[in-house]
Amino acid sequence: MNELQFICDRKNVIQGRFKSHDKIYSWYLPYNIQEQIHIGDVEIIDTKGNRNKITVIGLGYEKDAKMRCKTFPYFRGIASWQIQHICRRLKCLGYEYSRERHFKGLTNDDSTRLAVDIVFYLQGHVCAIEYNGVHHYYE
Hints:
Elements: H1 2-9, E1 13-18, E2 24-28, E3 42-47, E4 50-60, H2 65-68, H3 81-92, E5 97-107, E6 113-122, E7 125-129
Antiparallel strand pairs: 1-2, 1-4, 3-4, 5-6, 6-7
């Protein structure tokens, strides 16, 4: 029975809506990113070389999803558990947020554009969270 419960709890199909129109698309969601995706999240995907934002509107399970659906074209790397925790907390508090957002003029020493981990608005002010995980301290 535990094995059946595990299979049913897995969400291997993602449904998303592009910001530009209301059509709903479904993709196969690979196991390695299933825990990173949540309903209501805005995710960046790669469609034919273009980066687009979609809103996740549903997660479900289909027995033959891998054969019947294209694989979710996830662009953004998987966030650390710390970033995921912060995002879930902001969402619980009712804040809308963006991940990996770039700002004009925000670059490092060699002029490479830098992205801020999380950006949200608080009383009309832009708030940014940059979480420096352990990977920043080791080569």
